Amino acid sequence: ERSKYLIDHASELIYRTDERGNLIFVNTACVEILGFSQEELVGRHYLSLVKQEAREATEKDYVRQFVKKIPNAYVEIPVIAKDGREIWLGQNSQLVLEENRVVGFQAIARDITEDKREIEELENLSLTDDLTGLYNRRGFLTLAEQQLKHAQRSDEQLVLVFADLDGLKQINDRFGHQEGSNAIMRAAQILKETFRESDIVARLGGDEFTVLATVASNDRADIIKIRLEQKLKSFNARHDQPYNLSMSIGVVLLDPRNKLSIDDLIRKADAAMYEHKQQAKEKVSR
User: Terminal CA-to-CA distance of the chain, rounded, Å?
Assistant: First the structure.
């Protein structure tokens, strides 16, 4: 009885679905924030509440969680209230298992619409890199500090990736600076394809890139590095160019309880990237 009272009077949206994704329970906050009655919500598929343009990406996130049996995952999704308003939810979803079989998921979500508005306002400032369209150093540091604070409040796990485009000087010297710029733009595109739209992808300057991303609680640094390396390999196989794109990559998983600044974390990721670069050189010299 006490737990039922706490769930029903929580300020967060709490709901549960069956294995097909249909809502079978919603708490009072779901009704109050979304504007639908309990009868209108129960029985609906959760995707019907998600903004049309975000449904495919949202479904992919949940399918990945189901297939890999990731116990807890954090996503940010835009939903449409009954009155047509767009509401952003920061949501932790947990699989519901019976005899090791997934029978649905339950979620606790918080209205982060105001946080998103603040980010949009920041994005309207001069925060992007002219060549690639990614965030520039100023944009990254501004948004990353805010994302880090948000992660500390919501206990999310983040990952910081530092990537250095290998051989840019040689590309410039051999093929000209225009081709060097093309290589930078291709590297930026690979990073955008590897990470989600909600992740903060930036070019810090020259051949240096960085990414701050939200990850599942059981993701490992080496898995993220492998994912990026596979994207590079796939890109090189698909494109006929006189050189292969290669990146030295450093990855640091962030504990939200750690009070390090973004600058400190970049230094740690940079050190990990330098170690990766040295290991690659040692392999070549053997």
Answer: 68
Residue 224 and residue 180 in one domain: yes
Among all chains, which residue has been given the structure tokens 């093929």? 175
Q: Are 171 and 244 in contact (CB under 8 A)?
A: no
- CA dihedral for 110, 113, 114, 117, sign (positive or negative): positive
Domain count, the chain: 2
DSSP-based helix, strand, coil % in the chain, nearest 5: 50, 25, 25
pLDDT digits (tens, 9 = 90+) for 206-244: 999 999 988 766 667 778 888 899 999 999 998 888 889
Concatenated DSSP letters for 19-38?
A: TTSBEEEE-HHHHHHH---H
Nearest-5° Cα angle at 149, 143 to 155: 125
Q: Is 235 helix (H, G, I), strand (E, B) or coil?
A: helix
Pair (96, 219) in one structural domain: no
> Whole-model pTM?
0.57
- Bridge partners of residue 88, in order along the sequence: 78
Q: Same domain for 86 and 202?
A: no
* pLDDT tens by residue, 248-286: 988 888 876 776 677 777 787 778 777 767 765 555 444
Say which residues have a Cβ less than 8 Å from residue 102's Cβ, sequence separation at least 6: 19, 66, 69, 95, 96
